[in-house]
Amino acid sequence: MTQAPILEIHGLSKAFGPVKALSDVQFELKRGEIHALCGENGAGKSTLMNMIAGVLQPDQGDILIDGTRVSIPSPAAAQRLGIALVHQEIALCQDATVAENIYMAAINARRMPLMNFQKLYADAQKVMDLLAPIPVRTKVADLSISNQQLVEIAKALTLDCKVLMLDEPTAALTESEAQRLFSIVRGLQERGISVIYISHRMAEIFSLCDRVTVFRDGHYVATDPIKAVSPDDVVRKMVGREITQLYPDKLAPKEPGRLLLSVNGLSDGSRFTDVNLQLRAGEILGIGGLIGAGRSEIAQTICGLRPATAGTVALDGQGLRIRNYSDAVKAGLVYLSEDRKGSGVFLDMPIAANISALDLSKLTGTLGLLDRKAEDRQAAEMTKRLGVRMAGIGAAVSTLSGGNQQKVAIAKQLSVEPRVIIMDEPTRGIDVGAKVEIHQLLRQLAGKGVGIVVISSELPELIGLCDRVMVVREGRIAGELAADELGEEAIIMLASGVQNSSNQQKQAQNVA
Amino acid sequence: MHADIKAPSEARRINFARLASMREAGLIVIILALCIAMSFASPHFLTWGNFRAMLMSFSIEGIVVVGMTILLIVGGIDLSVGSVVCFSMVVSGALFLAGLDPWTASLIGIGVSALIGAAMGFFVTVVGLNHFITSLAAMVIVRGMCLVITKGTPLSLFTLPPAFKAIGQGSFNNIPYVIMIFVVVVAIFDFLLRRATAFRKVFYTGSNEKAAQFSGIKTRQVKFWVTVLCSTLAGLAGVIYMARFGAATPTFGAGMELNIIAAAVIGGASLNGGSGTIFGAILGMALLSVVTSSLILLDVSVYWQDMIKGCILLAAVSIDHFLHRKKS
Ligand SMILES: Nc1ncnc2c1ncn2[C@@H]1O[C@H](COP(=O)(O)OP(=O)(O)OP(=O)(O)O)[C@@H](O)[C@H]1O
Ligand SMILES: [Mg+2]
């Protein structure tokens, strides 16, 4: 590794109007290394990736590839230079098949006049199977968010690249898919490909990466070999302070609140059957399981967002007749979607309007007019509590970084003062510090008697935050773990249905 | 970057104000520039008579533009407005000739227009067709109904009582009633669109229908009622036209929808839904009207007029597309 680094960034700056996203940052990627890029939400990580990939143009500064200065005016130019980016936000053609999406970039590069679909499907399936057995003839719109994320990654793998940039690729993935991705990335590294890896999960960074660079508030802070630092060091550099307690204290045992939500024999006729669930006031219930196990579907059906074929839902002992979601919201039952971009936020609307969308009646006067001052007050308060980095509450949500968009989606749920709140992957894409903040907020809400259900693919979150965890496997409740039984292994065992440890090892090998 | 939270009022100014008013200020500048240029080119341009004529000509269409803008914001479109304007006119006229008093006849005319909107709303929200196809079909069907009712010949309504004709022809203190009605309709809906909770739901639905559903908004209801509103306003315009012309022509309003959609789009309404303002749309209407008036005064042939208007639309939409693409 004595040659010039494959990629160097010197004195790069970028501003969006008055917002300085990056100021005078530097970065260096050595040949064949996996280099982590860390920073809080809005620190400028995605902005840097977008400039290297030709999506955005820097205001100032140089990008060097193999020691020579280059300009990257377009994504196509980046592709010619051997740079591939997996975007943080999913950007697939929803109406095309998985195969067409995977080879879209490659087809474009080859400029073939006609397409050989037979070969296209076969090749695409081969690439896809490296990650997960998703049939490549499926339309992307029919896939779950996590599977779309995998397609997005597969797309980048088909490109013949020297530098691969992964912007929070595992945010929507569970442990097993993430492990597969890591083994692929290590394989690429052995072939001499250099990787930039962005993630808010410290464990991943420390198991996968060689070096780590930290940005804070658009400024470069430091680059260190991973062996020379601890996760705490990295977090301290990111947020500029010490984070002492990662998860809030749990509910003291033996103080069960009254029964708040009770679901009996719920089925939807296709994705899940006979689901029973009890939630007590003041409790945080976790729901774990593999991707596609039916967790989101169960939650959406409880809230009236999907039709049920059998079963009952009762809130506070009273049977609920939920025909649609607005009935649920009226009853005090709210749901945070896992699909932030698709159904979580209104991208081109102001932050304030996004936060008030769930409960407009609270902000409406007797004449049916919206109290805009109250709306602004609410938005100012919620964004302050969650630490949303923004130009102002009037800015469109599309101008926010991914994690900050997620905070707006959460603010929307929390602004209604619900009785039961079901959150689907609430901290997806959220940085360490803000995650602590959100967990504390949830605990506070629970303390006031709100029932909280958290669906999460992140095992440490389930274990650290929840009082009880239910695991869903193939549309059925596979089991339940009390606070003192919680552990990664226990959850994985229930989720995958593997009983003894020899089997589990076999599966681990398959995964690797 | 700095993450201070700005005072709400200041922050508010950034968004709604900025993007929308940039477009609107731009339109005002263009309209003024055209007016000034025209006042040199033609001595007839800068006269109250000409302005009154221009205002009259776009006031009634302006009422239809209001409904169309709201429909565009929700993500829909209505190609049938020209036919519905005519239908309302023809139905009211026929009922009047059959012996009904003109006021009741007009109310019924507006009512049946609303029913056409309800029928389209049904096909869009319950059957699941899109606005474009549904309203294209309605455009043809409703035009056919006009021809059936009148047997293809114009209804002569010179017997309309003067009190009714005054709506379209009379004025108070030299200000035509037509213009007053227009101003009132615009003021009401501009206010509601900015301030009323019910209309805020129109923006949510148009911006991201799925996210709106996930926020507990009954998007199908929203789309249904906005479709009804658009047709109802077209019906209102129809009876005003009847009062103005004292006749009901079964071919009236053909092609009107293009002018109206163009005005709304020039004024900043997006065909993808989620954005648009009434004020902007009215400015779009004003621009088209000033251009038409100028071309007539300059003796430009009718064929050229359409071409030039088409080019203005194309330019406006291109700018919109460019801004949109830059944003994402
Ligand atoms: N199009 C835009 N217009 C205005 N501001 C923008 C735009 N894109 C990004 N920004 C701002 O630039 C800053 C950096 O954003 P960036 O997306 O790079 O953050 P990030 O480090 O990737 O954060 P996250 O972890 O949340 O993904 C943010 O404050 C964001 O608000
Ligand atoms: Mg990012």
Separation of the first and last Cα atoms of chain B = 21 Å
List low-pLDDT spans of chain B: 1-17
Number of domains of chain A: 3
- Globally, the shape of chain B reads globular
CATH 2nd-level architecture of the largest domain in chain A: 3-Layer(aba) Sandwich
Give the number of DSSP strands of chain B.
4
The structural domain count of chain B equals: 1
Cα(first) to Cα(last) distance of chain A is: 28 Å
Largest interface, C-beta within 8 A:
A-B, 57 and 37 residues
Quaternary organisation of the protein chains: heterodimer
Tally of helical segments of chain B: 13
How is this fold's topology laid out?
The complex is a heterodimer of chains A (512) and B (328).
Chain A: E1 7-16, E2 19-29, E3 34-38, H1 45-52, E4 60-65, E5 68-70, H2 75-80, E6 83-86, H3 98-102, H4 104-110, H5 117-131, H6 145-157, E7 163-167, H7 175-190, E8 194-198, H8 202-208, E9 211-216, E10 219-225, H9 231-239, E11 259-267, E12 275-280, E13 284-289, H10 295-302, E14 310-315, E15 318-319, H11 325-331, E16 333-336, H12 340-344, H13 351-356, H14 372-386, H15 402-414, E17 420-424, H16 432-447, E18 451-455, H17 459-465, E19 468-473, E20 476-482, H18 488-496, H19 501-511
Helix pairs in contact in A: 5-6, 14-15
Chain B: H1 8-41, H2 48-73, H3 81-97, H4 102-127, H5 131-150, E1 155-156, H6 162-169, E2 171-172, E3 175-176, H7 177-195, H8 197-207, H9 209-213, H10 219-245, E4 247-248, H11 256-266, H12 278-297, H13 302-327
Antiparallel strand pairs in B: 1-4, 2-3
Helix pairs in contact in B: 1-12, 2-7, 2-8, 2-10, 2-11, 2-12, 3-4, 3-5, 3-10, 4-5, 4-10, 6-10, 7-8, 8-10, 11-12, 11-13, 12-13
Bound molecules: adenosine-5'-triphosphate (ATP) and magnesium ion.
Residues 45-46, 88, 167, 401-402 of chain A line the site of magnesium ion (MG).
